[in-house]
Amino acid sequence: MYTSVINNERIQALKRAKIYIPVTLFCMLFGWIYEKFSFGVYSNYMIYAFVFPFIGGVVFWFLIGTSKKKISLNKIFIKCHSASIATFTVGFIFKGVLDIYGTTSNLCNVYWIAGIAFAFIAVIFCFRK
Amino acid sequence: MRGYWRNHRFWIIYSILLAAFTTYALLDVFLIPHRYETVKSIKKINASSNSSVSSSSDNKTVSTKYNNNTKYNNSTDNNDDNNANDSNSEYDVESVDEDSVEYNNINESNEDIENTDNIVYKDDYTYKDANIIISLTTYRKYDTDIYVADVKLSSADYLKTALAENTYGRNIKAYTSVIAEENNAILAINGDFYGAQSQGYVIRNGVLYRSSAVKGNEDLAIYDDGSFEIIEESKIRAEELLNAGTQQVLAFGPALVENGKISVSEKDEVGKAMASNPRTAIGLIDDLHYVFVVSDGRSSSRKGLSLYQLAQFMEGLGVKTAYNLDGGGSSTMYFNGRVINNPTTNGRTIKEREVSDIVYIGY
User: What predicted TM-score, i.e. pTM, was given to this entire model?
Assistant: First the structure.
């Protein structure tokens, strides 16, 4: 029974890791195509937008899924962790678009604040049952 | 269905919120106009000023520092007679040996226009009256067409700026040619596209519109005597500039030439534009003697300029101070009622891009 629960959590974690693979690839492809049509103008925000789904999604869930220790994660953590990744990724792409156009907006701060808030809540609920 | 909603409602709601906010943010940045202030009064110019453009101090030949292999016979050389321009209105390009560089430039004019009061002469390449002389020349350099308007004024009052729709705000845009026509501009180039930024100094025609400084911003201050100075926003307040007699502050940059020397390196670029692009720049040669420069770009036959190439070109024109303005698809030069260059955003279609503001010569 105990082994079965651990296996189930590992399977779920690896499933989540798989979901983030196409998201990572999409971000890479989107950034690459956007740069292609930007006449040499580039933005680090656009280039590195894929880092969030890759590190926070693929790598993180892969490590959880392959860990030999029993790691039980709270549902709120899972939701906030994912929301944080989504917010930062969209924020980076948005900031990249603005950079390449050559403009700025205070609305970018909303992404950073929301992303940090979700990450903070996720950390709080990390190991709570 | 209920089970799906129960399991996924957080994601459904959050995705909708994120998408809605991003859509709003994009609309806010690129489309929704924010009108902050309408320009109420534009300083009237004493058109009957006794001063007229004097040739005595203006006949300097633009220095020819270029080390290239192209010679240009300029369109406005030797315009002793106002009627003599008709046959000179095209530039010839011929190849010559390397190091035998020669630019017969727009300033090689011995004309005395003291007697041109009330006389206006204009064609596709020249404008002359008692207070303003403009000569337009096209160069072919760095695989790019570069348009240079040489401007001599009797008063700095004729060097002005204008805002799209005569309104200060964000996403208030119009074509350079439209703003120019609305302001009866003789010559106009796009400005610094202040509307794309939410911070940075904006002073236009002696009116302070925005005083929030941006660390690292290098601006061009144009004083009421027509002189140029490169300033850093972090070192001087906008109000101080205004009190010192600044008429215009253009905040794009960087400075290309300061004290007659190139002030950018080959590695410097605007933001992160590492490629050659269409460019717009303004330079001061001498008192009330300016050059407005626009280059084409983004096509196989007109590759565009890097910032350093533009700086080299400006230095070659003999400017003491030169400053880079908004480029890319914004780069537009308007002269005597028509757009001179080939403005393009995507490199395929020749079409102006709407901008926030222009720098122009006019009454």
Answer: 0.77
